[in-house]
Task: structure prediction
Amino acid sequence: MLYWLLYEKLFPAIGVFRLFGYVTFRTAFASLTALVLGIALGPWLIRKLREFQIGQHIREDGPKSHQKKAGTPTMGGLLIVVSIVAPTLLWTNLRNPYVWVALFALLSFGAIGFCDDFLKVKRMRNLGLSVRKKFLLQALAALIVGIFLLALHARGMYSTEMNVPFFKNFRPDLLIDSFLASPWTYPLAFVFYFLFLSVVLVGAANGVNLADGLDGLAIGLVIIAAGAMTVLAYTSGHAEFARYLDLARLPGASELAIFCGAMTGASLAFLWYNAHPAEIFMGDVGSLSLGGGLGTVAVLIKQEILLLFVGGVFVIECLSVILQVSSFKTRGVRIFKMAPLHHHFEAIGWHESKIIVRFWVVGIVMALFALTTLKLR
Result:
């Protein structure tokens, strides 16, 4: 909106408005707008959630130390979503289709999380949507994102190629190369593409969701991941950087840097109120929307594999749950004292603040490693 007004309309007459044509400038302002908006709206939302008695219900099998957190206002992810959407609409070029795909993913996964949180509050228990319903709805959202991407692909505006870390010239096409471009295997290629997309988006959404168990843990890791994705989105859409780094370039993808910048600013604002001891929890509406948004950006800029490193701690949290459940069902033995992994460290005596900071450190190291792979090719 402001891009159209200040750059496209006013720049020809007033030269200083040329600044608003630069992605870096608008990314910085989107981050600041999201930060200020989130901090300004935070106290009002916390007060309203308390008035409506929308408090967190702690699972009975969770750490005993968490029982004192019962009743803390939840569904704070609404603050995050608003603080991302508003700056994105203000500072991006709204003619860019990638921006709308990313916003759709953010809002659709957030809507699923909202339904889950609403049912928990209504039932006054830590039981919302069933696992099956939640995964089916997330897969449906991923399917719709995939349809949008294939529509863009058909118009020559999106590539289904994928960047592979450490390899310059190896860019497999997920839609065609997967089945050797045989006409008889085209339907299977589409099924494979949608399955792959679902794994990335649903995996990213639930990775953030599983990490959301300690005050500030998940949102701090999102800040790190969103910051790294801002850099990756900008380089992917920049002609010279993409050519220098041998990346599959998508013209216009740099606008996603503004979306990621808004996500970073909104997450910083939420951390202001979510830091230990938390005044508000994000709930599933926050964790699923953030994860879905990050996963969609990774797909749009062709960095699906690098997302595993950018969100490395989220991957570790997911794996700890998968290993715990698999081991207990097959052998009757628990690998960890409690899953996800951060609860295991609580169970062995680590203080909550120490776990949070150490996980952040691991997240920073993995994000930096992901960025170094751009040159190590």
